[in-house]
Design goal:
alpha/beta; about 350 residues; hydrolase; disordered C terminus
């Protein structure tokens, strides 16, 4: 079964309250999770000790005039910023600082993410966020890694994520979700566990994308965004526990999310002056499951709701717009010593 079909099945099971088992991939998943248990001790010995906490980044960023732009962050330890040394180094703080600069307004950040959170915990996080900020302007969710490592049924995980996005949209927020990172990119984790982790991560990320767009949000693929420097300089993108991002790694993830957050808020007039998707770069309108599957293999890819001829759905389901907001820098023909595709990344001018 292809990933697009698996993503559709997981999303359908989520929508109708069903489940697909802990792995959602049949016998391979059952065997894989048995292997995961057997190799867990080895992985813990390789990966460093976890941190005791993370800096609190809730607060006001920028000092412009006007009403603050209210911004909430939800999710797991990456949303909290575990591995960052200072509050201004988290994803939320980096995005808030940039938004304050773009808008000339202060940005009021409320972070309700929880270390170790699974998608099932998003219900409570949404309630806490809306109790503090009843009408947030934008919300960023970073979730998924613990659903994989804790063996959460994918249909259950995406059902809770979709419900969280829908509730935040009803409260008036634009919602951007950083989908499950590629846990196969954590190179100290041994094979074949790393191969299985990559498959599970990508399957969940694709299903998350389907659920997020169906609920009216935008999904951004995180994937293996941080893996390029691991083999040569693991301390650059990853923190001292060799699992959570470093401040540089968080900045990279924030840079992938920021163009989509800006577009969702229409900071640069994209709604009134939409740019055509670049077909040469693989952008365009696709059936949602197809767009979700393509996004997970290329970090920094955005998938958002779209219409064709005034309709949101076609014969193959929901339409979605796929954009590569982060453009991978490809080596020039004949250039020696250049990184392979998937190495360096730069922010696309297509916003």
């Amino acid at each position: 079964m292809g990933r697009a079909r698996r993503a559709r099945r997981i999303a359908q099971a989520a929508a109708y309250g069903g489940g697909m088992g802990v792995a959602g991939v049949g016998a391979l998943g059952v065997l894989g999770y048995g292997l995961l248990r057997a190799e867990a001790v080895m992985a813990r010995r390789i990966v460093g000790q976890p941190f005791e906490g993370a800096p609190s980044d809730s607060g006001t960023y920028g000092s412009g005039a006007g009403e603050p732009l209210r911004f909430v962050v939800l999710g797991d330890s990456t949303g909290v910023g575990m591995g960052a040394d200072h509050a201004h180094e988290t994803i939320g703080a980096t995005v808030a600082t940039a938004l304050a600069g773009f808008t000339g307004r202060p940005v009021e950040l409320t972070n309700v993410a929880v270390i170790g959170a699974e998608s099932t915990g998003l219900d409570e996080q949404v309630e806490r966020a809306l109790a503090v900020v009843p009408s947030p302007r934008v919300a960023v969710i970073s979730i998924g890694a613990n659903d994989v490592t804790h063996r959460i049924d994918k249909a259950v995980a995406v059902r809770h994520l979709g419900a969280a996005v829908r509730r935040l949209r009803e409260a008036g927020a634009e919602v951007v979700v950083g989908t499950c990172p590629d846990l196969g990119a954590i190179q100290p984790v041994p094979q074949p566990l790393r191969w299985l982790a990559r498959r599970w991560s990508r399957d969940l990320a694709a299903a998350q994308t389907v659920a997020v767009v169906e609920a009216g949000g935008r999904a951004v693929s995180v994937g293996d965004l941080l893996s390029e420097a691991f083999s040569t300089e693991p301390h650059v993108m990853f923190s001292k526990d060799r699992f959570h991002p470093s401040p540089v790694g968080y900045a990279r993830v924030a840079a992938a999310l920021l163009p989509t957050v800006s577009a969702a808020l229409d900071l640069f007039g994209e709604r009134s002056r939409p740019t055509e998707p670049n077909a040469w770069r693989g952008e365009g309108v696709r059936p949602l499951a197809v767009a979700a599957t393509r996004a997970v293999t290329r970090p920094g890819t955005e998938v958002a709701p779209a219409e064709v001829a005034g309709g949101a759905r076609g014969a193959r389901g929901r339409w979605a717009l796929l954009r590569h907001r982060i453009r991978l820098a490809l080596p020039q023909p004949g250039a020696a010593g250049e990184p392979a595709p998937g190495g360096r990344a730069e922010v696309s001018r297509s916003t």
